[in-house]
Design goal:
Radius of gyration: 20 Å
Shape: elongated
Largest sheet: 8 strands, mixed
Structural class: alpha+beta
Strand order of the largest sheet: 1-2-3-4-5-15-6-13
Order of helices and strands: EHHEEEHEHEEHEHHHEEEHEEHEE
Length: about 290
Amino acid sequence: MDIKPGSEFTIAQISQCSNEAFADYFGHPIVWTPEELAGYVPNHCISVDRSLVACAKGSDTPIGFCLMAYRDDLPGHARLAGMGVVPGWAGKGVGSQLITAMVEAARADGTHTIWLEVITMNTPAIKLYSKFGFEAVRELGLWKKDASTEELSPQEAQLPLEESTPEEVLQLNRKYTAAADMPWQMWHQFALTTSPQKSRAFKLGQAYCAISNPEDAGEEAVRLQALAVEPEARGKGQATALLRAVMAKFPGKKWKSASVVPREYGDPIANKLGFIIEDITLDLMKLTVK
């Protein structure tokens, strides 16, 4: 088996390999067009040069891949942003060889910590990552809420809900989710970064949020894209009050969180607002490269 740099392959080849690998990913296919993957890669800090692709010996056809992400603000850290093996090669050691090559490359370039997210029920993947020394450090979740009409108390109704801008919320979100042990998707905010014109933003006190366009009839639910609270205002209920006010402004809508959030932060707010956690949860895992 040959392990080669991702830069030796076209985006179309990598997207085809990914589509085959994730054709039935927990009952839901994940499909990328080359154009979509080409947009996703830079917006998630993925380095094609430092990503890896597996091929059968002497072949140039990808049978597996791992996409590696690096952020300028986190020197020494990397994220395994995506890894897959086509079904015909599953169980034949492709994943192990990719991870071995990934760790060897990390040692060579001075990367000391590698992060990844994995679906909690993906037992084979967790077993594989654990074999190489990855450890789960936090539980991550997504939440949803059925359509309802929020009833504001007289006191809540007096709170001044103001318009903000997606750009302002993105800036605050990146400021406060920049730590390496926070899910990198929270920091990237793909939809908010690439299509801010399709989002709405609000603030209440020192709490800020961005949501997908509630007037978009093509969307099943309004997505909560980002939530940020200034440090001095945390623990005072401003995030809950903001979200309750925003939901009251757009009654009768379903709601979903758009990116994974550590459960220690998401659960308390979700419980107060009547959100329930999605069936699929994730673990954030960490490898200290030795």
